[in-house]
Structure formats: structure tokens, C-alpha cells
């Protein structure tokens, strides 16, 4: 019994001496420093990139909002330019040192000037690219009647109250009212309930609305 115990202890000692690396590996595992995580480590790999915050682009200050519901006299009072014309050129302008925002320049041949323009002139306006991408676009050859905000400090403008400040003009020179126009201006004494009006009648409505200021 005594010799059996001695042999077991001797075998255990030889096993430890034959594999000293096991002790070193065990110590190395416990001595490895913990990895420092960054915020991006916690974003799942399958997550879309737009999950991460991105800096907001520079956008011009929006014009003063009109009270709702919008009325035709309200649009007239907010407009700095009112005219009908034909689009002759559309050109995209990148941002520069002088202009911090990307814009679109639209040139019109003014057919009928009502406010802030001259009949027969070529008038160019600048519009923020964000409005263009959101749907406020023009095409060459298009005939429109516009109520535009006075140009901002950056020289930018847009139609008053969005689509309500923009009318299509047919080949006979008549101003066409969309379903939005008819709903917004249904109580107006000149425009109410009419799908199309002569430009002279609309100019009279503008003058009347200006007299009510």
C-alpha cells in the first residue's frame, strides 16, 4: 500500500514537469487585457448605414408660414413677385464660397407682369435645390403664373404656399386652377368655383386683395 501511494505521487509530478506550457497558457489566458469597446462595436453588422447620425446639410431659412386656411388675399400679400411667363432655361448651380447652398436657376420670359416684374423681360430666379428635389420643378417651355416670395438674404425664392402660389397657363393664355386651388379659394369672389380664368381677371383679383390690406 505504501509503495502504491509513492508511485501515484511520482507519476503526478512527472506529468506536471513534462507539460510546463499548460501552466503558462493558463496564466496567459487570465493575463490577456479586456478589449476596449467603441460605440460602433455595438451596432449590429446587418444594420443599415443610415442608422448612424450624420450632420445636417445647410438649409436656408424657410419663409414665414401663412396662417391656415390659406386665402387668396393672404397669398397676394405674401408675394413679392407676381407674373406669368414661359420657362426658357433651367440650370443647376453648385454651392460655392459665395453661396453656401446648392441652387437651381430658372429663367422666364415674362408675358404678363403684375407685381415686381416687367412684361417682355427675361427674369431669372434662384431656388434652393431641396425644393427642387421635393417636387417644385420647372421645365423649359412650360407656361406658369407665379406668386413668389420676396428674395431672401441668399437671393432665394419659391412659390408662396407651395403649389397654391403656382398656376399653369394654357395655350390660350388662361390661368388654370387645380383641385387644390379650387378648394382653397372657393370663397373668393373672382376665383371661387372657376377652373380657369383670364389673366386680366386674376390681375383684378390681385389688385382687389391688395386694396384690402
Fill in the keyword field for this structure:
seven-stranded antiparallel β-sheet; 213 residues; globular; 23% strand; single chain; alpha+beta
Structural description of this entry:
The termini are far apart. This protein has 6 helices and 7 strands. Helices cover 28% and strands 23% of the residues. It is of the alpha+beta class and 213 residues long. α3 (72-78) packs across α6 (199-211).
Share of residues in helices: 25-40%
Q: SSE string, helix = H, strand = E?
A: HHHEEEHEEEHEH
Order of strands, widest sheet: 3-2-1-4-5-6-7
Structural class: alpha+beta
**How can the largest sheet be summarized?**
7 strands, antiparallel
Q: How many strand segments?
A: 7
Per the principal axes of the C-alpha atoms, what is the gross shape? globular
- Give the low-pLDDT segments: 20-59
Per DSSP, what share of the residues sits in E-state strands of 2 or more residues? 15-25%
What is the terminal separation in angstroms? Answer: 119 Å
Number of helices: 6
Number of domains: 1
Radius of gyration: 36 Å
Mean of all residue-level pLDDT scores: 77
In brief:
The protein has 213 residues and is of the alpha+beta class.
Secondary structure blueprint with pairings:
Layout: H1 2-18, H2 20-31, H3 72-78, E1 81-93, E2 103-115, E3 122-128, H4 129-133, E4 143-148, E5 166-169, E6 174-176, H5 179-184, E7 196-198, H6 199-211
Antiparallel strand pairs: 1-2, 1-4, 2-3, 4-5, 5-6, 6-7
